[in-house]
Amino acid sequence: MAVQPNKATSVAISVAENDAGFVVPARGAAARTIARQAVLTPPKSERVYRFVSRMVDIVAAMIALLIVAPVIGLAAVAIKLTSRGPVFFRQARAGRDGVPFNMYKLRSMYSGADDDKVLFRNFNHLPTGPCFKMKNDPRVTTVGRWIRRTSIDELPQFWNVLKGDMALVGPRPLPLDEVRTDTPEQRLRLSVKPGITCLWQVSGRTEIPYDEWLALDVWYIRNRSLALDFQIVVKTIPAVLSARGAY
User: Fold this and answer.
1) CA distance 186 to 177
2) Position 2 in a domain
3) Number of domains in the chain
4) Which residues have CB under 8 Å from 5's CB, separation 6+?
């Protein structure tokens, strides 16, 4: 079906309902088309949205950290007992406006594995784009494979949300070596805070090619609202439990 022409571009955009139940840019050629046509159109009452969403982020992150603290603790013990190295993994990621910040995760690979990423570039599971995702990555530990499948390794990012580096909902933050700013849509992706979850996260994660991933992020930025954020958070729960596209 078609939506009304966007005021900023005067172009009608084809959309379709994705697997997560959101009306988003259609996949394939249509996804690439909307990405190319993307122009940031700030939501109405942008200041109100940013203020309220930040307040929600703070409260939700504090509650979440209290709830998941025992889970993080148990996972930390398992990591420490089964592999050498620190419990937490800290990596520089691109934040809003491309400003780097340290994102925290529970370590799921052997210590120093990130330095060896270049050795495995030819085994990238994603067919296009600069992002690197590898199935059956030999750098992942036994405990790491489990916490990745369950997304437990991502729980420390609630601390990033509390600090203000990230939001609950927003495009996933990329490692600095995977960030591209060649096109308007790639630059647009950096115009908002990155998030713990997003449309890509609830729509299949690594099953989605890079151009469609980018189109989903662009669509979210152009249509974000408190209601949409709530829907994505709710849909994140079954997405995590199903472990679809997680490895």
Assistant:
1) 14
2) no
3) 1
4) 11, 12
Supply angle C-alpha 188, 194, 200, rounded to 5. Answer: 85
Q: Which of 5-19, 50-64, 70-84, 221-235 has the lowest mean pLDDT?
A: 5-19
DSSP-based three-state secondary structure for 195? strand
Q: Which positions ≥6 away from 209 have C-beta within 8 Å? A: 126, 127, 128, 129
CB 129 within 8 A of CB 209: yes
Burial 82-113 (b: 16+ CB within 10 A, else e): ebeeebebeeebbbbeeeebebbbbbbbeeeb
Residues 224, 144: Cα–Cα separation, whole Å: 33
Q: What is the pLDDT of residues 103-143, one digit of tens each?
A: 999 999 888 777 777 677 667 666 666 777 777 778 889 99
Specify the pLDDT at position 12: 32
Q: Which residues span the domain enclosing 102?
A: 45-242
Interval 142-179: pLDDT, tens:
999 999 989 999 999 999 999 999 999 999 999 998 88
Position 190 in a domain: yes
Residue 237 is assigned to a structural domain of this protein:
yes
The pTM assigned to this predicted structure is 0.78
Whole-angstrom distance, CA of residue 203 vs CA of residue 186: 20
17 in any annotated domain: no
